[in-house]
Amino acid sequence: YGFIPPCTMGSLGILCFLIFLEKSWGQDPTYVISAPKVFHAGTSENVVIQVYGYSKAFDATISIKSYPDKNFSYDSGSVHLSPENKFQNSAILTVQLVQFCEGQNSVSYVYLEIASSYFSKLQKIPIICDNAFLSIQTDKSVYTPNQSVKVRVYSLNDEMKPSKRDTILTFIDPQGSEVDIIEENDDTEIFSFPDFKIPPNPKCGVWTIKAKYKEDFSTTGTTHFEIKEYVSVFAVILFGHLPNANHSQMHRRHPAGMAGSSGWNRDGEEVVVV
């Protein structure tokens, strides 16, 4: 038996390993197994097997098993290899999120096992639960008390297609306390949540919104917004360029809704100070 170490095939990210079997008549019997170099839980993974030097059809079983004990099979498939398919076939295997990812927060491993009456192979493969993309967007970055925050979420899987998973949003105040939790089902890649109503007498400062999938504990998204008592945006307009301009010749114009402590009108009228 001979072994060629794994090799990465360019941007395809394919892990290849070759085993040369015992010599027989004609071409030496060999097989090639192609699989992703990293598995993603919740994603369908394509495993391809091709053999050379055989003349009779036979079956092979491809399985994903628990590491390191091999006691649990996450998924398996049987492939038929024959002259009709040029002794090449593939199986689609999936490690379900609920089977693997609860409590996982780092890279783990599984075994990829190929077994037939002619050969068998066991290969350790990394697997991660972070298999998607979550992004949160709000309608603006600064709010005042008693306003509502409009939120939408972009949810894509690792193939950049709509993930269609239940998503949970958590709103956290500047002191780190969870104020509200909202759950929504994703029907498209971009979906809106019910408005978050800022509670009475909120803590001013930077708030955080965290998104996660209901059945996936690793893929998350985060954004921030700020709550202020008022938004102090105003314009100062100077009329004229008189060399001896004095206070009476300069007008300061303030839009309505400014802080009452400065004597500005809160009733929707523009105030001009002369």
From TrEMBL:
<feature type="signal peptide">
    <location>
        <begin position="1"/>
        <end position="26"/>
    </location>
</feature>
<dbReference type="InterPro" id="IPR002890">
    <property type="entry name" value="MG2"/>
</dbReference>
<dbReference type="GO" id="GO:0004866">
    <property type="term" value="F:endopeptidase inhibitor activity"/>
</dbReference>
<dbReference type="Pfam" id="PF01835">
    <property type="entry name" value="MG2"/>
</dbReference>
<dbReference type="InterPro" id="IPR050473">
    <property type="entry name" value="A2M/Complement_sys"/>
</dbReference>
<feature type="domain" description="Macroglobulin">
    <location>
        <begin position="136"/>
        <end position="227"/>
    </location>
</feature>
<dbReference type="InterPro" id="IPR041425">
    <property type="entry name" value="C3/4/5_MG1"/>
</dbReference>
<feature type="domain" description="Complement C3/4/5 macroglobulin">
    <location>
        <begin position="29"/>
        <end position="127"/>
    </location>
</feature>
<keyword id="KW-0732">Signal</keyword>
<protein>
    <recommendedName>
        <fullName>Complement C5</fullName>
    </recommendedName>
</protein>
<dbReference type="Pfam" id="PF17790">
    <property type="entry name" value="MG1"/>
</dbReference>
